[in-house]
Amino acid sequence: MSSSAEPLGQGRFLREALLQEPVGERIRCNICHRRCLLPSGGLGWCRTRAHRAGRILTLTNGAVSSLAPSPIEKEPFYHFHPGSYALTVGSRSCNFGCPWCQNWEIGKVVPSAPAKFLAPDDFVR
Ligand code: SF4
């Protein structure tokens, strides 16, 4: 992971989003159940997808909010290797809007907020 933070929505955080389809002048994002219809220059509900120049881009490719081992009992597994650890990684923003969210600071990110970058290949290594 890069040691310094960079603004989201620029440079290597940008990548063309999967699952998009044009609908007239707008583009529908089919990543999640919200199926946002983005006007030119607009953002999706999650604020991580933007309609720019006729395509939807993700603004948070490789953006990591946390990377840490955590006890397996915290994860949604039932009796899976009790006493072991899982490497957990989180990105930025979320497509849910739960009022009790304990991660609200990263769950509703400002699209240009500073973040650290971790390439998927580097995460796997
Ligand atoms: S909330 Fe985000 S990921 Fe879900 S459909 Fe809307 S823009 Fe796409």
Characterize this entry briefly.
The protein contains two helices and eleven strands, in the order E-E-E-E-E-E-E-E-E-E-H-E-H. It has 125 residues and is mainly beta. It folds into two domains: 8-58; 63-124, no CATH class.
Protein architecture, described:
The chain is mainly beta and 125 residues long. The chain folds into 2 domains: 8-58; 63-124, no CATH class. The protein is built from 2 helices and 11 strands, in the order ββββββββββαβα. The chain has helices spanning 104-107, 120-124, and strands at residues 6-7, 15-16, 20-23, 26-29, 37-38, 49-52, 55-58, 63-64, 66-71, 85-90, 114-117. The strands form 4 sheets. A 3-stranded antiparallel sheet has the order 1-11-8, with no helix packed on it. Strands 2-7-6 form a 3-stranded antiparallel sheet, with no helix packed on it. It has a 3-stranded antiparallel sheet with strand order 3-4-5, with no helix packed on it. It starts with 5 loop residues before the first strand and ends with a helix. The structure holds iron/sulfur cluster (SF4). The site of iron/sulfur cluster (SF4) has 12 residues, from loops.
